[in-house]
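The step that takes the researchers longest sounds almost clerical: writing a folded protein down as plain text. The outcome of that step, for a single protein, is printed below.
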Amino acid sequence: MSRSPRVMIYVQHLLGVGHLHRVAAIARAAHRGGCETLLVSGGMPDPTLHGLEGVRFVQLPPTRAKDASFRILLDENGDPITDAWRAMRILRLTTLFDDFAPDAVLTELFPFGRRPMRFELLPLLERMRSLSPRPRAFSSVRDILVDRTKPERDLDTIAWLQKFYDGAFVHGDDRLVPFEKTFPLAERIAGQLHYTGYIVEQHAIPETADGAGEVLVSAGGGAVGMPLFRCAVAARPLSAARELPWRILVSRQEDPAEVAELQQLAGPGVIVEPVRPDFPGMLRRCRLSISKAGYNTVMETLASRAQAVVVPFAGGEETEQALRANLLAERGLLRTVRESGLTPEALARAIDEALVMPKAPEAAIRLDGADETIRLIRRFLAERP
């Protein structure tokens, strides 16, 4: 290929923003790797997204999930999406595809998830399949899938993968979590699965002077953190970290009235402020991290080698956070507290245990997933007939 390869990346985050930030890391790696890169996001805009210089970013008319069940999707005005809205999105997405003319398309999670978005993704994939030469198609998927409450849907996943895709990039390390642990039919698509290692942002971490010697409390970008934040405030005086400065990073999606109440509860020595784009840099300087157990936060924490306590999210049908956190805890890389057992006393005990943990070894698990994803895409393109 004489010109730079063109890579189009599609992501639809519905609750938090972890999916968006994970593919943003892939987009940055694509740009570093000499690709013309288009990142298309269908979720709500995130003001903390940063470091996309050189990447073309397009925001589709956004949608989000009403709650953790993901059954009802709302538009940017908070109204349920309609057939007319879906038709508009299909047109916008396919027009972007036609104008960019990518050599490769990466769809985040689909077909292993994001089933409600098949109304626009299946037409796009059919369009790609009809072209000659056909753009390469890849799925980008986490190491752990949510609980498969309807196993028959796995057959749809396999059918779509085999019909439309050249491969699926599993952003994990099979020494920690083999994909078949949460996708029992993985053997049927073994030839299409490629482990990349975990994705951690290593190249666009803003410099920061904040966080040094602090206890950082965070819950990602969704509106699910208040129980943890309140519990952390109550646990502080019970823990060995009571004399340290604490900083609580609150999602902009949280209720402003609840944030104001939290600020009143926090008291001296505790800063309450919005989530910041330099959070990964703060992790490298902190004394302890207390957080939910989302993929991005946990991997950034491991990369920073910070001592950590995680409280896996257990709302809706979510199981992936708990499974990953428990496996990492078994390796002695962090401490966990079950969401159902979250009390100030339990959190304080976990804090005390984490404070005396040794730092994790740097090579505990593979963390080069973004760059490996682009290496694989370029390899597939080089092998094009």
Notes: The two ends are 11 Å apart (CA to CA).
